Amino acid sequence: MLTTDWKTLALQAQLIFGKSQSRTLELFPFDSDETLEAFEKLPSAIGKSVTDFGSPAKFPVDKYYETLSKKDVQITEADPVELIQDIKSGKYTCVEVLTSYFHAALIASKVTNCVYEFLPDEALKSARYLDENKDKLVSHCPMFGLPISLKEMIPLTGHSVTHGSLCYLDRVVDYNADIVNILIKNGAVPFVRSTNPQSLMMLECESFTHGRTVNPFNSDLTCGGSSGGEGAINGIHASPIGLGSDIGGSIRCPSAFNGIYGMRTTVGRIPTSDYFSCQMGSESIMSVTGPLTRSLDTLELLMKTVVQEKPWKIDPSLTSIEWRNHARKTPYRIGILKTDGVVTPHPPISRALDIMFEKLQSTDNIEVFEFEPFNHQKAWEIISALYFEDGGDDTRKTLKSTGEPMCPQTEWILGKDSVKRLTVEEIWKWNLEKQKYRKDYLKHWLLFNNTEGNTPMDALIAPVFPGPAAKHRTAKYWGYTAQWNLLDYPVLVFPVTKVDLTKDIPIKDYKPRNEMDEFVYKQYDSPESFENSPISLGIVGLRNSEEQLIDIMKLINRQ
Amino acid sequence: MLTTDWKTLALQAQLIFGKSQSRTLELFPFDSDETLEAFEKLPSAIGKSVTDFGSPAKFPVDKYYETLSKKDVQITEADPVELIQDIKSGKYTCVEVLTSYFHAALIASKVTNCVYEFLPDEALKSARYLDENKDKLVSHCPMFGLPISLKEMIPLTGHSVTHGSLCYLDRVVDYNADIVNILIKNGAVPFVRSTNPQSLMMLECESFTHGRTVNPFNSDLTCGGSSGGEGAINGIHASPIGLGSDIGGSIRCPSAFNGIYGMRTTVGRIPTSDYFSCQMGSESIMSVTGPLTRSLDTLELLMKTVVQEKPWKIDPSLTSIEWRNHARKTPYRIGILKTDGVVTPHPPISRALDIMFEKLQSTDNIEVFEFEPFNHQKAWEIISALYFEDGGDDTRKTLKSTGEPMCPQTEWILGKDSVKRLTVEEIWKWNLEKQKYRKDYLKHWLLFNNTEGNTPMDALIAPVFPGPAAKHRTAKYWGYTAQWNLLDYPVLVFPVTKVDLTKDIPIKDYKPRNEMDEFVYKQYDSPESFENSPISLGIVGLRNSEEQLIDIMKLINRQ
Question: Which of A24, A79, B220, B464 has the fewest CB atoms within 10 Å, counting from its CB?
Fold first, then answer.
């Protein structure tokens, strides 16, 4: 380690960020001095130190659009899939597109603190290479020239991987993650590494490597986590697509809180096994990679591109399931989960479920009905015991080695009763409970509403979180996401609406079912607290049904 | 538990067997008194008690054919796939076929002690049901009327599952394993439960629930294990096909030692998760189900039948990979592994490898070359640490509860240095080593002999065990099978030849590389010790390539 003093390391982390920002401004200067001046004057979510959370604007997204030039907006607001066509057709060069996205990211970073590190030199080199070899490469590169953002925990040659803990600041890796190599080979240009929180086991985005990332739509709210930087930068449209990872909601919460698409993939579908985190080697519950993006077509493009590369020939933990094109003729049968029976969703979420129910009733080729959950409380009991088989010691040691303080959310999750060191026999016991629960749930799923000779339910629309984007340091109920990690079901998060100040009135005199339900209920004090927050839901399918979820989503969007 | 005295339980286990044998003789009497008399006079591998190993004939298979009636031979020696056609066409009824197989199993059981329990009542009921409902069922049942044997550890309603340990003799289960239900649905008739050894972690077949199962081709040799009863009963042709399980060689050793086909499937391809064993809930190394049979076509039929039932809709641990028909046009590239670099194979195995090398050189659509192994010693180091994460305590406790003595082979495996209780961090460490080794090996496999722009190696022909069927209590080197469990690669075992008394002369003055190599070397004292033993090899493929292995095998067999 460079030093065992966390404060020195925190300064160095800031320096890494600062240098990469200066270099970006040098290689990709704003088009005018006016823009630069406006950029410098922006209310900043980046504080003077990593314990200072800055003074962000209430609605950072407004500042973003006020600052970004028209030319940059034209590029960054184009649908990324169309943008790739524009590059291929010669309307833009890869360097031009990259330049606009760097401008967007600089501004987004300032107003939300979503960037851990810019990658100006590597990205410029890649974009130039693509431009110079366009004739040769363009036909083999479905993502030709598309910038891509990467969660900080994803290994990238020549950069340190901290996953939010300062003691790893000098762990500079000498390889790219397999998925990064695949994307680069297919024309993508990594341009930004996005922020992730301390320990990664947090549905928010606070760490001593970067401070706090705020929600672009309301800075009083969290951007979610742990792929929090990805949520914010994609939510504000300063990245066309990014990669996150998810072991308990870490792709889905940031997607939901920022009103974008995000997919928790099935374990073994796309490469993840070469990332860094705490508890490495723990296999009872596995983390997965997935895309976060505002564009469903771009999400599909990325998934298809990665799977078509047969990544199982690189990473033996993957399953050789080709990308399957869906041309379904019989109607999809879709359930709606109104509550998990443990924590009641807030009014805007319930409204979103009603919107979807109504919409689906009038969507061609879809049948919709209400789904009854099956013992979701038990799922949390099992998964929370298996997250930290060492009782959290690895995480604690990681922090202790530099004296790095524990963030309140880290302290909270490690302090839970369910988190304790397990014996071999206890691990086995919980694994058996997991196996049994998975089997019981599958049976429930396939039999549900299947009395009249119907085909089984294809997918389920469910909350991703009990409320809109949470107030800082209050995102404590993981049940609506961790449920599907335990079952290893893929989930596609999608935006539905925004908090409505007149419609989303708190429920009065609600009688909570339990302590967590009460805590969550109390958070929703008024719609004003959540003004402008996106409201999202997720569509859940059985294992390895990613293609089907995308197909259903397209049907719904066409409506 | 019924009692804590293992001797009382051992008597009860014998009683279960004895009753089921009497009932079989009652429901399926031999065709003549002569046959019955001959049966009663057979040299028996079933002792007076479970610690008595009887007095089997030197070559049990000869006694078997001397005893079995012509009519029974006609049925039991037919290729099972053709037999199904004969039932479908009306040449035989299901009950007739079952009757002959029961006669064969009664004799096989006597001469080798391969049957744990006969299933006369259930099987008769099933066969009658199929006969009575033939018109309705026959077109939906690809395995219509085919008897099937099941390793004792596979749950079957109304029967106890001991997996070789007496303390579980009263664990009567109330369900069939999923795969059993699938096979029954498709017309198969479970008729026999076959023997398995104490603790299942043994490449032989000794337990205090049944005694010792001997090799039908030479009773001085083991039938292999842990699916030992399956190996013997299928090797002698008294079952058309059976199911075993494999975590370190338990399908492949019995297949090799008995000269039949046997397949270690990829984890997640066909149902296994509802079986019983010790160390349940341990997920670092997973056991898999697979077929053992003398008929490649029947093996393919079973695999295809199970996968086409989409078993992932019953068992969520399975992967939704359909059965893929192979119609490969470019040549298969096949490596030959002459030694794993740890233990040198015995002369008959080396001869079998040479036979195959020569044969493949003249096989259409196949290219053959020698393959260099990649650090197989390391694989054993990793897998042997992960087999018993509890240091073997569960197995020890299982025995201790009834005072059941430890079989020498159980004692040997539990006494190895690598077997010790692991902490959470040690489990993680070994899992990481496993992940790294898997990735390195895949890279080695795909790059091997690939310098001139060749396509990668498709499959590898390798020893399954360093020698022919081992002498009792000497099958101690697991390296040639456990290697592929660690990598989770499927392996199809196939018969090549038999020990040749003139050709298979021991190597003189061999200098062993290590202690295990020396032990193994010394076992092969003369070809006479292994007279009549089958010699088999295995063909290994990358994960989920079961169809391809079968396709290659068909090509080879056609030669």
Answer: A79
